[in-house]
Amino acid sequence: MSLTGGNRNDVTQLMPLIEAVPPVRGRVGRPRRRPDHLLADRGYDHDKYRRLVWKKGIKPLIARRGTPHGSGLGVHRYVVERTIALLHWFRRLRIRWEIRDDIHEAFLTLATAIICWRRLVR
């Protein structure tokens, strides 16, 4: 996965993100190479990207624009929002001071390790 500027449209990074997903390990047999489903909000509602995701063998569960809320995707999205909020505990990640990508990614890895450690200790 690569870091991009904050002013870039998220949907442009969808396919590189899917390509960067590592094999799912832990079960006997050949490891799965891709997830079964893709959950996304209305910002990803483009038929072009739906087709590209389908071609990868992944079922896109993307909220449609103009439809009322309550599709059920919010239940899963809450996990992502909560994770981002946890990362915002670390000021260096909330406001990116690092110019070099590798240093920023190192702080991100360190922050996720600290969050996991705190949860395991409890």
UniProtKB/TrEMBL annotation:
Residues 2-115 form the Transposase IS4-like domain. GO terms for biological process: DNA transposition. It holds the Pfam family DDE_Tnp_1. It comes from the Bacteria. GO terms for molecular function: DNA binding; transposase activity. InterPro entries: Transposase_11. PANTHER family: BLR1914 PROTEIN (PTHR30007:SF1), PHP DOMAIN PROTEIN (PTHR30007). This is Transposase IS4-like domain-containing protein. It comes from Actinoallomurus iriomotensis.
